[in-house]
Specification:
The complex is a heterodimer of chains A (269) and B (488). Chain A is of the alpha/beta class and 269 residues long. Chain A has 11 helices and 10 strands. In chain A, 41% of the residues lie in helices and 23% in strands. Chain B is elongated and about 105 Å long. Chain A: Pfam families: ABC_tran.
């Protein structure tokens, strides 16, 4: 459903994402882990066509994102790190607005309230203006917006950031439901626990490169944490972001365990 | 763009735009700033409407009374020589345009009354601005001022953060991620601002239309006035729509709301206050007008070629010889018609040619200056809107000149009638010839109708064209800026 093919993005010669090859199938949750600046959000932005790729292609349901951005957006839903809404409208009005724009028709109020309830927002809060909402409440409206669209693919950028543990737990259950419904989910997150809990596969990014991909079934939470921290420590020592052409060379600085993962990725290309 | 076109997901452009516009309007109506600024503007417009209407009624009433008095004085001047009657003269009062309550134009500065007398085409007198206090030099509160200066400011305040606000809030990402096209956002937001501004202006426009129904149609019929009003509204609609497009375009092109606001305020200041003055100065440099003294000196110099009452003037002798030859006589006493009458008529005719030439040249300079000023309208639309507004309101130079021409023709009508009476009835050598009220009554009171709406519209074609070009330019800019819109 979601496919990146040699997907590359450079800003003024500085590579933010380097030749990413990735496939997220229907009913799969792929979690992108990595430090800030690793390229997770750039990947999401490329799938949303918020930025245009320097090279390579991002495909959604086989459709090139750059070639047919509007057609692609029929198939995807997106939840950013901080869901931003219109403060003078209520949560329900915000949901109604975005849903109407996304679907081209209004959904009945009771359906919208049901979606908000499923996202974990209390009914009385739905009628209050968003200006009084906490970050977590706004996030729940964002989840409801994404659910309302019944999209085949879901792009999540740090979706649980700011959610309280209970809300985060409800969110995990929601992702499980969507996965069971056959939705392909690509989630950028720092939350190792969430990634292990809900992810089908986990990819670890470092300076624009997907250095490791693994299935969560084969992995304990502690293993994931260890690998992640190894990569993160390598990132910290790495200095400036790579320029075009330097990126692959830099991967050789990774710990030996990680070099294997990179080699695996190269083979996959 | 076909607004009814079906796009991805079964959505129609019209449906998406309608949803956006409604949401924008709801947000606007829930914003207390809109009610404050809108309320103030509405109040100012109602005050301007009331003050303008009262002023127009007062001046029109005064003119009507004075017009009746001066004509009665003409009729009651008693028995006298017709040429003395021509010198007795009359005041001609420019009728106040019923739409002057919207835009008083140049009436305040050019005067409304002219003394119609023998031999001379006089300048207009009684300029209200001359009697104004120093405070009034800052300008008066008129509908035109509110619509030309304050309404764009409201639009700037409503529109500057239309896109930058979405980007800064993060909602732009949300909108673009669900497949909303930037141009749909532009049209939706534009329609919302049009609806909000329209809600402020429509009641006032309606009041204005109702007020026109109470206008005494002595100088303009209702059809003329309603047609002028409709075009006036169209001109202001083009101007304000252009401002809405500009505000949205600048907001889409700016990286922050602060920058958008500063840019738009800078444009508002230049458009409203700097460009009109700069263009007036430029027009004066490119096409200078003579000073009043220079103009009068030029006229006096030209008039030296005519003989007036000077019987020693070579032209007088030449004309006398011409008359003698025509009537085959050698003495004035032998002429079958009044020689005095003939000389007065001849002198008047010579004067008409000189006045036409000099005033024609002066008005041509004014027209050239106005065209130069109008060119600035391609960038700063007030330069085109202001003359358009005055033109449709009937308070511009064109209407002033039309009345000046009518007053001059009236003067010539009096001169001709008085000279003809002398030619027909005065016996050469009789120094006691007098005429009476019967002759004075042959001269009707000056009735000047405001030109038909189509004349004013045709006269303002250039300004309307420039204004429209500016609006389409602003829309094109907004569309281009919006298409380049990025959420990051």
């Amino acid at each position: 459903m979601l496919q990146a093919s040699e997907l590359t993005k450079a800003y003024n010669g500085v590579v933010a994402l380097n030749k990413l090859n990735l496939t997220v199938n229907s009913g799969e949750i792929f979690c992108l882990l990595g430090a800030n600046g690793a390229g997770k959000t750039t990947t999401i932005n490329l799938f949303l066509n918020f930025v245009t790729p320097t090279a390579g292609r991002a495909l959604v349901n086989g459709i090139d994102v750059s070639a047919e951005p509007l057609e692609v957006k029929r198939h995807i839903a997106y939840i950013p790190e901080t869901v931003m809404l219109y403060p003078s409208l209520s949560g329900l009005e915000n949901l109604n607005y975005f849903t109407t724009l996304a679907l081209g028709h209004k959904r009945p109020e009771h359906e919208l309230l049901k979606l908000l309830a499923e996202a974990g927002l209390a009914k009385e809060a739905a009628f209050k203006r968003v200006s009084g909402y906490s970050k977590g409440m706004r996030q729940k409206v964002g989840i409801a917006i994404a659910m309302a669209k019944n999209a085949k693919a879901l792009l999540l950028d740090e979706p649980t950031s700011g959610l309280d543990p209970q809300a985060a737990n409800e969110f995990s259950k929601l992702l499980d439901r969507l996965k069971a419904d056959g939705v392909a989910i690509l989630m950028a997150t720092h939350d190792l626990f969430l990634a292990k809990q809900v992810g089908t596969r986990v990819g670890i990014m470092q300076r624009g490169i997907l250095v490791s991909t693994m299935t969560t079934d084969d992995l304990g939470h502690a293993d994931l944490e260890r690998i992640y921290l190894d990569i993160a420590s390598c990132t910290d020592a790495g200095g400036a972001p790579p320029r075009t052409g330097e990126a692959e060379q830099r991967t050789e600085q990774l710990p030996s365990a990680m070099q294997g993962a990179v080699a695996g990725q190269k083979e996959a290309r | 763009m076909n607004t009814a076109a079906t796009v991805a997901g079964g959505k129609t452009d019209a449906g998406v735009i309608d949803t956006i516009a409604r949401k924008e309007l709801v947000e606007l109506l829930r914003d207390s700033r809109f009610w404050w600024t809108g309320g103030i503007i509405l109040l100012l417009m109602l005050i301007a409407l009331f003050l303008g209407w009262r002023q127009m009624q007062r001046v029109d009433g005064e003119h009507a009374a004075a017009r009746a008095v001066t004509y009665q004085q003409w009729l009651d001047q008693g028995d006298k020589n017709p040429h003395q009657a021509a010198h007795f003269g009359q005041y001609a009062f420019k009728p106040v345009s019923p739409l002057a309550f919207v835009d008083p134009g140049i009436d305040q500065f050019v005067g409304s009354t002219v003394w119609v007398e023998a031999h001379k085409q006089n300048e207009f007198n009684f300029r209200p601005a001359r009697d104004a206090t120093s405070l009034q030099r800052f300008g008066e509160l008129t509908m035109a001022f509110v619509l030309q200066i304050l309404a764009p400011l409201v639009i700037v305040l409503l529109g500057f953060s239309a896109f930058t606000g979405e980007r800064e809030r993060g909602t732009l990402r949300q909108l673009l991620s669900i497949g909303v096209k930037p141009t749909q956002l532009l049209v939706g937001k534009g329609l919302a601002i049009i609806a909000a501004v329209g809600a402020l202006l429509l009641p006032v426009a309606l009041l204005g239309f109702i007020a026109l129904g109470f206008v005494d149609d002595q100088h303009a019929d209702a059809k003329n006035l309603y047609l002028r009003s409709t075009w006036l509204i169209l001109g202001y609609a083009i101007y304000l729509t252009g401002f809405i497009a500009l505000a949205l375009g600048v907001s889409a092109a700016s990286s922050s709301s602060r920058k958008a606001l500063i840019g738009l305020l800078a444009f508002w200041v230049v458009n409203g206050f700097i460009a009109p003055r700069a263009m007036t100065d430029l027009a004066r440099i490119v096409s200078p007008t003579p000073t009043k003294v220079e103009f009068q000196n030029g006229l006096n110099e030209a008039r030296k070629a005519t003989f007036g009452h000077d019987e020693t003037h070579p032209a007088f002798a030449a004309f006398r010889d011409e008359v003698f030859k025509k009537y085959n006589v050698t003495r004035i006493e032998d002429l079958p018609v009044s020689f005095r009458g003939l000389t007065l008529r001849k002198d008047d005719e010579n004067g008409y040619r000189i006045y036409d030439e000099h005033y024609g040249a002066l008005w041509a300079i004014y027209a050239r200056q106005e065209r130069i000023r109008a060119i600035a309208g391609f960038a700063f639309p007030l330069a085109a809107l202001r003359p358009f507004s005055m033109g449709l309101a009937g308070t511009d130079t064109f209407h002033q000149n039309r009345f000046a021409t009518a007053a001059e023709l009236y003067r010539r009508q009096i001169q001709t009638a008085m000279s003809e009476d002398l030619i027909q009835h005065h016996k050469n050598g009789d120094n006691n010839y007098v005429s009476n009220r019967r002759l004075w009554e042959q001269i009707p009171a000056l009735e000047h109708k405001i030109p038909e709406a189509r004349t004013a519209i045709a006269e303002q074609g250039l300004n309307l064209g420039i204004l429209s070009a500016w609006m389409f330019g602003a829309i094109a800019f907004a569309v281009t800026a919006t298409r380049r819109l990025r959420p990051l």
